[in-house]
Amino acid sequence: MFLSLFIEGFIVGFAVSVPIGPIGVLVLQRTVNKNRLSGFFSGIGAATSDTIYAVIAGFSLSYVINFIKQYQFTFQLVGTLMLLILGIFIFTKNPVKDLRNYRRKGSSHFQDMMSTFLVTFTNPLVALVFLAVFTGSGIVLDIAKPYQALFMLSGVFLGANFWWFILTSLADLFKHKFNLRVLWWFNKIAGAMVLVFVLVSLIITLTSHFMN
């Protein structure tokens, strides 16, 4: 029983993480510009945020869900602003300067993790995605049975991190093909992709808000 709960959670966590959005682009960019651990820790930040939202959705915490829905527009605007700053930051990155700084100071994996955690956590749609997935699959977490919830949520966390492990490993595998000029273009393309995500997200957010 516990194993089946873990497997269900693992599949859910993996499936929710797979779509390549702005966080996926950020993870790829950090893997290529720094190293695999930097990208992987960035993925851990996103997986941690996803797991927290899985807790909210799994236990059907109606008060929190209603709060998220009530202030969804504000959450989305804050998240969009953070992504806008992130996109500009990536776009203007200088790979030569980054490599020098990295070799001189190293990399703070904690900062990598926290930055993606904050960006992901300001997207309340993740909670609604988990709520839809759990409802559709009949998964209900019972607060009176914490061990069942622990196995399920552990599966969600590890499933999400498994995806980030695969993505960063593949990016690291082909990283040697990138010279400084390619890195420069990679930063421009990655930054532009994030900015496109921001523009599309902003249009959808404003349209849905003012049409309701």
Description:
The chain has one domain. The protein has 10 helices and no strands. The model has no long low-confidence stretch (mean pLDDT 76). The longest helix has 32 residues, at 180-211. The chain is globular. Helix 3 packs parallel to helix 7 (109-121). With 212 residues, it is mainly alpha-helical.
Order of helices and strands: HHHHHHHHHH
Q: Provide a count of the helices.
A: 10
Q: Globular, elongated, flat, extended or rod-shaped: what is the shape?
A: globular
> What proportion of the residues form beta strands (DSSP E)?
under 5%
Draw up the topology in text.
Blueprint: H1 2-17, H2 22-33, H3 36-58, H4 62-70, H5 72-91, H6 95-105, H7 109-121, H8 125-137, H9 146-173, H10 180-211
Helix pairs in contact: 1-9, 2-3, 2-9, 2-10, 3-7, 3-8, 3-9, 5-10
What attributes does this structure have?
mainly alpha; single chain; 83% helix; 212 residues
